[in-house]
Amino acid sequence: MKSVGSHLLTKIKVYSLVLATLALCACGFRLRGDYLLAPELQHIYLSSVDQYGELTQIVKRHLQHNQVTLAQQFSDKLPQMRILKDKLDRRTLSVFPNGQVAEYELIYTVRYQLIVTDQDTQHFKFEINRNYQDDPNLALAKSRELALMLSEMRKEAADRILRSMASIHPS
């Protein structure tokens, strides 16, 4: 009797799991970082003001992760992405009683263009802001924290670029 109840409970768990998986797939759920890019954007030329900069490298990895082929040579027949600006500014938010800066606002600005053949050039610009608390007594730890924060901001910028590309459907 106990094994029949246990067997029934196992079946219910399996059916629930299958039903949840089907519902998840039916609603279009995709893992983070996977974007459905238009077929016209599957082969693209990427240029940047800083070809070896961290943002450019992250965008390249994200594009390749999404099965986009990056052209090595420029061609006016291929869609083109130009990363025009990748800049970090900081603004003082507060100071210690001795006059040293206690807190900054980090402002990471990215500007880029997407050029698709026979269409108008699309311009994009966005900012990512973070607050950063400085402590001169922990200079090494704080410089490491700042480097990690900048790396995360660049990853977020690359995600944002891919999300905006996924929303473009050239016709």
UniProtKB/TrEMBL annotation:
Highest taxon of the lineage: Bacteria
Main location: membrane
Keywords from the UniProt entry: Cell outer membrane, Lipoprotein, Membrane, Palmitate, Signal
InterPro entries linked: LPS_assembly_LptE (IPR007485)
Bilayer topology term: Lipid-anchor
Subcellular localization: Cell outer membrane
Membrane-spanning residues: none
Keyword flag Magnesium: no
Statement: the UniProt record of this protein carries the keyword Signal: yes
Complex and partners: Component of the lipopolysaccharide transport and assembly complex. Interacts with LptD.
Similarity field: Belongs to the LptE lipoprotein family.
Described function: Together with LptD, is involved in the assembly of lipopolysaccharide (LPS) at the surface of the outer membrane. Required for the proper assembly of LptD. Binds LPS and may serve as the LPS recognition site at the outer membrane.
Name of the featured protein: LPS-assembly lipoprotein LptE
Lineage, broadest ranks: Bacteria, Pseudomonadati, Pseudomonadota, Gammaproteobacteria, Alteromonadales
